[in-house]
Design brief:
Immunoglobulin-like; 2 domains; 10 strands; 6-stranded antiparallel sheet; alpha+beta
Amino acid sequence: MVRKSKAKSKIKSKKGVQLKLLYPYITIFICLILVGVVFFWKLSQTTAFTRISGDTWSFVVPKHEANGPRFGKGIIKPRFPVYGVQQRVTITISDTAPVTKVSAYLLTDTKSSGPYEFLPGSGTSYNSDWTGVWTLDDTHNKKYTLSVMATSTNGTTTVNIPLK
């Protein structure tokens, strides 16, 4: 009987050794899964642009938590303006309460400019396309972000749209 127990302990130790050899591979596999999840989550949080024609681009603001107005589709022309060129942004904004004000700031490498007021267009005060127009008064190499704020009686929602 002593020999049987030794044989069993040898089998257990071999399985234990084999399992221990798999730990690094299991850890790497779990890490790869986590990296993939984070990558696709970040990808879903970024603004995707689609060229409509020439220098006109459409975009959709990623889903965002908001008690106030919600941002939807937008159009920007031009997406990559140079110093002194006029830029126009139209974006759909909706809420359960009337949207009363929409404005934006431009954040570049060296400064913040604005606020630029948006005007309501087609639609109702609950769901409308709002348009803002400004002339770029700064150069930008790396950072060019549009920060848009929409206000209703439910609150104010701010979204940052990286343009570059």
